[in-house]
Write a structure and sequence with these properties.
3 domains; six-stranded mixed β-sheet; three-stranded antiparallel β-sheet; Dna Topoisomerase Vi A Subunit, Chain: A, domain 2; about 50% helix
């Protein structure tokens, strides 16, 4: 019946309020009522209770009366409107049995029981997942469960939605060291259905990446998914300089020497490409990268990765030549881009330095830290110091106290010890600098 579903909705709202209360968190009997206003002093917590709509009001009144008859709720009529308008309805929480009866009527698991089940699921997942950002999310959820005895909004209380979210995290964690997978293919491989990820998992999945990864808060959905190894299209890597790729057998020494000349094909066999003549930029598709082998010349002066696309293009146009390999970095790199960077590090001649140029902000330094952790520990910052901040002070952007807190967390990272003067300058002066501000005078 219609009023039965209304009664269940009201009771569910009351139980939600109970699970958010200090009484639920501490496991104590409530000393004040868990209630909602239907129409009290002109205010209502339940907008469906329209006193001008007699049919709707009477339906809700009947639902409340039925719940009260079962001992699940108590209610109070509005003064001088007895049997007409209900002012308040409250949960009968006098005893544990009364509360248990409310859960039983709804067929709903008590919050502490559900919290225990979710806690066990989280512990199982933590034993299997390695990605740091996923572990931070799960540990945060476990701590919240321990503190509040409720999953809150971090994890779905619905078992099906939760299972899908955990399955997506586990599958993405398994992709961390592999090439990216297209979004629909990810959904098919993970759920056996091309639409489930988009329909019921993607929004929460993106929120988790945005909150728990090092991606900037303003990162787009496509960048966030790429960070987790999920792509809309196969990735392409952009660069400028003496890079060659071989697709066939051949002596590594000959191929390496040939990579600075147009003779790479002769050295490696016909299936080879030398990009060095393309002084104003080239690109390599991920599928081709995966089936080939990269080569860099012995005399390479340095590698330089650049975060921002505009700066990358400006730099290679102002500095054409083959003395260095310049690579477009983009945002937090995907598993595929990470594999490309590792291949470059392996192909670089001994002693060849690698520099990284990023924004002088949280994102730029977190990218440098990640490059040092996952690609090469000796990658050096390029134009990312307090002198640049002072030089471009007029173009610097203000930061909030919350952002300064993120910078303080960054300052504690061991891999950024040499960058502390710049990070501390940002904290003390509450500023950051996007590298586009320096676009006029790259050197």
């Amino acid at each position: 019946m219609l009023h039965e579903s209304t009664g269940k909705e009201l009771l569910s709202i009351l139980l939600d309020k109970y699970e958010r209360s200090v009484f639920f968190r501490t496991g104590t009997t409530p000393t004040r009522r868990i209630r909602i206003r239907l129409y009290d002093s002109g205010l209502s917590d339940y907008e469906r209770y329209n006193i001008e709509n007699a049919e709707r009001r009477q339906e809700i009144n009947r639902a409340v009366l039925e719940l009260a008859g079962m001992g699940l709720v108590r209610f109070r009529w509005m003064k001088r409107e007895e049997n007409h308008i209900i002012a308040q309805v409250s949960l009968n929480a006098d005893t544990a049995d009364a509360v248990a009866a409310a859960y039983s009527f709804l067929g709903r698991k008590p919050g502490d029981t559900l919290a225990g089940e979710i806690g066990a699921e989280i512990s199982d997942l933590l034993a299997r997942i390695k990605s740091p950002w996923m572990r931070r999310f799960l540990e945060d959820c476990r701590e919240a469960l321990s503190r509040s005895r409720s999953p809150g909004g971090r994890i779905p209380s619905d078992s099906g939605e939760r299972r899908n979210l955990f399955r997506a995290l586990l599958f993405a964690d398994g992709q961390a060291d592999k090439a990216e997978v297209l979004e629909r293919a990810f959904s098919i491989r993970c759920f056996g259905d091309s639409k489930i990820f988009e329909a019921s998992v993607k929004k929460r999945f993106l929120d988790i990446i945005r909150r728990y990864s090092d991606c900037e808060d303003d990162s787009g959905d496509e960048e966030l998914l790429a960070f987790a190894g999920i792509a809309r299209y196969p990735e392409r890597f952009e660069f400028s300089g003496p890079l060659a790729i071989s697709f066939g057998p051949g002596p590594a020494e000959a191929a390496s020497a040939a990579s600075a000349r147009c003779a790479a094909s002769d050295a490696c066999g016909t299936a080879a490409v030398d990009f060095s003549p393309l002084r104003y930029g080239a690109s390599l598709g991920c599928p081709d990268f995966k089936r080939g082998r990269l080569y860099l010349p012995p005399g390479l002066a340095r590698l330089l990765s650049i975060e921002n696309k505009a700066n990358y293009i400006s730099y290679i146009h102002q500095n054409p030549g083959n003395a260095e390999l310049v690579v477009y970095h983009g945002g937090q790199f995907s598993p595929s881009r990470g594999a490309f960077f590792r291949a470059l590090a392996a192909a670089a001649p001994g002693g060849c330095p690698w520099y990284h140029w990023g924004d002088i902000d949280y994102g730029g330094f977190s990218m440098l830290a990640r490059l040092r952790r996952e690609i090469r520990g000796d990658i050096r910052p390029y134009r990312m110091d307090e002198r640049e901040l002072a030089k471009y002070a007029a173009l610097a952007l203000p930061v909030t106290e919350e952002y300064a807190g993120k910078l303080r967390d960054l300052a504690r990272r061991q891999e950024l010890a040499d960058c502390l003067p710049c990070i501390n300058y940002m904290i003390e002066n509450r500023v950051k600098l996007e590298q586009e501000a320096m676009i006029s005078d790259e050197a």
